[in-house]
Amino acid sequence: MYYKLPILLIAFLLINFELYSQDEICNCPGQNKVGKGSIYFMWGYNRDWFSKSDIHFKNTSGEFNPVTNNYDSYDFTLFGLKAEDRPGFKKLLTSDLTIPQYNYRLGYYFNDKNDLGIEINFDHTKYVMVNYQNLRLEGTIRGQYYNQDTVVQAVDFLAFEHSDGANFLMLNIIKRQQFLVTANKKHWVSGIVKIGGGIVIPRTDITLFGQRLNNRFHIAGYLFGIESGIRYDAFKYFFMEYTVKGTWANYTNVLAIGSGKVNHSFYTLQNILLLGVQFPL
Asked: Fewest CB atoms within 10 A around its CB: which of 65, 177, 233, 256?
C-alpha cells in the first residue's frame, strides 16, 4: 500500500498548487520559461550509522509458547543496544536492485524565485543488532525479575533486526541554492537542503527465546530529519545528488512474537548517492 503513496501525493500537488507568474520564475536547471516547474525522480543507495538505543520488549498476555514449552510473558529493557547496517552492495549487479540499501525520491520544484520544492523521500535502511554484545537487562521474564548485565546473542535469547527495512517515508520541503553554472547553461552545481518528517514502515525479523518471526510491513512510528548536500545537473534532464542525512526515528509499535510489542528510538546518519531524471512541465 505505501508504495502507492508517492504517486498519489505528487498527483495532489500538481493539481492543487497554483502556478507562479512569469516574473516570479527561477533561472534554474530543468525549468521552462513559462514557470510551470519540474517533476523529478531519483534512485540511489546509502550507508548508515546508528546511535545506541534502549529497547523495550513487552508481552503480558501470558501466551503459551510450544517451542520453549513455557508461558512467554515478559516486560524488560535492554540498555545501550548497538546496531549496524547491512548495505548489500556486493549483490548490486547480481540481484534485484532493491536488495541493497536503496533510496528513491519523487519531487516537484515550483519554479519560483526562491527555488523551493517538495519531495517524497523514501530510505530503505537496514538496522541489524550486533550479536554477542554485553548489555544491562532490567525487567521481568516469565515472572522473574532481572537487573543484571547479560550477553545478548541469537542462539538462545535474542536476535533483532529491521533487515527488510527500517524504511523511512518522509515528506520534505527543499531549498536549492546555485553555486556554479556554465555560460551555455548545460552544467549546474547547487547546494541542497531538505527538512521534513514522516513515518517508519519496518518489517522486523526477530528471534526471542528460540522462536523466530519475520514480521509483516506495518506503520510502527514516526521520524524527523534534515538532509543536505551537493547537486550536479547536466544537459537539463539529468542530475546527480550526494547528500548527508540525519534523522531521529521513534519506533513505538514494532511487532514481536505473538501479541508482543517492541519500542525503541535512535538517531541515524546516512551517506546517500542518487542519480535522477527531471521533466519540465
From this structure: 177
